[in-house]
Amino acid sequence: MKRGITGLLVALPFMGMAQSFTYHIKATLKQAEANSVLRMTYILGDKNVVEDSATANSGVFVLTGKVEKPVKARLVLDHTGTEGRKGRDVYEIYLEPGNILITGKDSVRYATITAGKVNADHETLKVSLKTMDAEIAHMAERYKQLQGQAVKDTLEVAAVDSGWNVINQKMDDIRKAFIVNHPASAVSLDVLKMYAGPMPDYTKVMALMNTLSPAIRNSADGKAYLAKLNKTLTTSIGQTAPDFVQADTAGHPVHLSSFRGKYVLLDFWASWCGPCRAENPNVVKAYEKYKSKNFTIVGVSLDNASTASKWLAAIHADDLNWTQLSDLKGWQNEVAKLYSVEGIPQNFLIDPSGKIIAQNLRGDELAKRLATLL
């Protein structure tokens, strides 16, 4: 069954609301197991995770509460009551004033929602993005087959990388169109953040930010994101990389400025980050090829004190034979905050004068860029 939406399309000044409102979620899944649990998670403020749950009562789940603004929530149907929040029967909604009615058979994933304007907008976006499902599935299968090869087909690797880039661009185009066509929607600011990603192109993102309604731009969330966006200017291409000092694996303080005169890749990663570890062979390959040609790497780990030993083990296991730094504060790493890092892996290529000349180089992009410089 395809997801659909009907119901109350009443425009409310959500983003300007100063007082909290009550939401009522009623999910009716008549064929759901008797001991199943509907689990809900959403985030308030700066990564403050809120959790709630409801046990089936004759196939009906009820969740109610108060929030101060429309907020995206993740619903997971735990079919046995023991799976926790890691199940795949997932449905995303927005908490908004009034009744949020969800109906289906035995799955929330394929349910139908009847709610207000915010969820109507969200469903519109999901329908648009769903047009990409076939392309994503096809590319995922090609990637899976590639991973099973003992010796990778380099042409297929390049084709798959190119294919993912095309898909990501199409999805960005869908998100951009949604923002432009829904400037007053409470959903649009969240979509803008997804469009921007962890390393936003300031000019492109700011242009879209300015298409949003004054109510959304001037909301608390709008102002907070604008401040964050403005902060990225200090680490954008063409800017001098902010200097810092942080301890290496032996506890010795290291200044970024001490590498002035060389090309430096400032690489943010962590031992627990799967994509980082998968990317490390590409970084090692570039380092080994260009380390004698005025190039080096400074790694900054977002490990914390409890994973310090795993950080050191990962450095050894992945052959990361360059300067490695960390204050072992996890996501609160001072250098990560200085560079507005909110996702890893992430990197900045810095020239001998200390200016940032590239960001977020992946795969063979680093080696290709260095080949033009060294």
From TrEMBL:
The keyword Transcription regulation does not apply. It is found in: Cell envelope. It comes from the Bacteria. One of its GO terms (molecular function) is antioxidant activity. The keyword Disulfide bond applies. One of its GO terms (biological process) is cytochrome complex assembly. InterPro entries: AhpC/TSA, DUF4369, Thioredoxin-like_sf, Thioredoxin_CS, Thioredoxin_domain, Thioredoxin_ResA/DsbE_sf. It holds the Pfam family AhpC-TSA. GO terms for cellular component: cell envelope. SUPFAM superfamilies: Thioredoxin-like. Residues 235-374 form the Thioredoxin domain. Keywords: Cytochrome c-type biogenesis, Disulfide bond, Redox-active center. This is Thiol:disulfide interchange protein. It comes from Filimonas zeae.
